[in-house]
Every structure is written in structure tokens, then in C-alpha cells.
Amino acid sequence: MVLKLHGVTTQGSPSGLVATILNEKQVPFEFIPVNTGCGEHKTPEYRACNPFCQAPYIDDDGFILYESRAICRYISMKYGNQGPPLLPPVDDVRATALFEQAAAVEAVTFTQPVAGAINEIFYKRLRGLTPDMAKYDEYIATLSAKLDVYDEILGKQKYLLGDEISLVDLLHLSGGAALGLIGSDIMSQKPNVARWFNDLSSRESWRVLKDGIVGSA
Questions:
Q1: What's the pTM?
Q2: What's the pLDDT score for residue 121?
């Protein structure tokens, strides 16, 4: 039974991130769009699959999983022999520890100021509110300081964990792309970060989602 991805259609969303990993791992999937603007994510049927009423979630032959990072790890692990290896070998304790370290940095150090900036510009305007530009500037300044460290790391190696791409690198795609959509060029201001992010954004798995997510089954 083909895997089903339930999510919003936009590339720079957690749903787009999951679709990217499915493409990287060459996993056919059916895409089922969720119209959050009409409240489809709050129906009893949707809530039964994701009680937090957020997108995306997957249905893999009856196995329901939500939270984009968890889904991406599941796909990368289940289809480890397809596409590029995005996770460290399960028996390599040190490589796994370094992966978890980098994953924690992405989830907290990178994502928190990114989410704050996006909320201040995009979601406030969506709700008819006026963005607080001083807060937005503060989020971007915080992110810039963190990206200085990224730039130092990426000046020594091609990707965050070395010279081979990993899931941790790809997890930055949706947040980095969303920053561009709200008018920030922060991802292009540091030379090594810019080279790295351009590399990620140029991958076919991501590029095919430019006009919206479509299934591949």
C-alpha cells in the first residue's frame, strides 16, 4: 500500500520537508492536500490522526505518524538502502552522538529565532495584526549570531557533519526558504552558509516542489 502524506501544498513548509525526504529516498507517495485555511486540520477525522491539529502526518499502510522531524527520521531509517544515507550507522555510537548534537542545534538554535521571525511577519499579517519590527530585527540578529558559528563550521567541511549530506542538513530547508519568503536574505549573508544552503536548495528532491507538492506514486 502506497504511503500517504497529508499536508499543505507549499514547498517551504514542514510538509514540503517531508516530501523532500521522500523524494531523496525514492519513496513513491500519494499526496493528500489539507486546506488549513478552511479548517480541514481541525475536523474529528484529522484530529484522530494528529491530535495537535497540525500538518503534516503520514499514513504508511495504517501506521500513523505526525511531526515532520519524526517522519523524516522514520523515512530515512526505513528506506536506509534507497537514495543517499541520511542517518549515521546504527552501531556507530560516536557518529550517532554527533548527529544528535547537530539535530538539537537545528531544532533549537536555528529554528527558534527562525520561527519567531516568521511568526512576527507572516502569521501576524495573516491574522490582521501589525508586526513588531523591533522584535523581528531581534530574532534576525539572534539568528545571524548563530549562523556565524555555522559559517565557521561550514568553512571546514561541505556539510554540517562532514563532507557527506545528512538529514540534519536537509532539515534546514523549510525554515531557510521561509525566511526568504518574508523578505530576509540572512541565508545568503555568510559565504559558507550561502554556499551550503544554495547546494541544498539546488537538489532535485527540493526543486520539484517549487510549484507545490504533488505525489510521486
A1: 0.95
A2: 95
